[in-house]
Design brief:
136 residues; alpha+beta; 2 helices; 21% strand
Length: 136
């Protein structure tokens, strides 16, 4: 009180100014909260759009994503193992697959599977002789 009287500062005006500053801080905080909420909704829509709709059928050949390879990095290791055969498709995306090599059967999330397209492809072998230069 002594400092305000010595400096001729009006206590009510400074109190009102402080209240206005606090109200501005609250508005700024609410605006930031609203912007964060809008950003999260937009990112959720974008991520949901990126999820591909995969449909699997019994008897179909699929590849399984192997997430354990992240712990043992290697340049030439494939993260997809298989092929496996689909035996049953459950509701909500769960799929039973069968490893035909050793006969093991297990259930996985359908998002970890993708279609195997290598069954019907015939690999043609072509030999090219590097000894004779090609004639043009």
């Amino acid at each position: 009180y002594w400092a305000t009287t010595q400096l001729n500062v009006d206590a009510t005006a400074s109190g009102e100014k402080r209240i206005l500053q606090l109200n501005e801080m609250d508005e700024f905080r609410l605006n930031a909260y609203e912007n964060a909420k809008l950003y999260k909704e937009q990112m959720k829509r974008w991520h949901d759009k990126q999820i591909s709709d995969r449909q699997f059928f019994e008897g179909q050949q699929v590849l399984l994503f192997n997430s354990r390879l992240k712990f043992f990095p290697g340049k030439l290791k494939s993260r997809w193992s298989g092929p496996f055969k689909v035996t049953k498709v459950h509701l909500h995306g769960a799929v039973d697959i069968l490893n035909e090599k050793d006969g093991t059967k297990f259930t996985v999330n359908g998002q970890r599977l993708k279609n195997y397209l290598g069954e019907g492809i015939e690999k043609a072998q072509i030999s090219i002789s590097l000894a004779d230069p090609p004639t043009i």
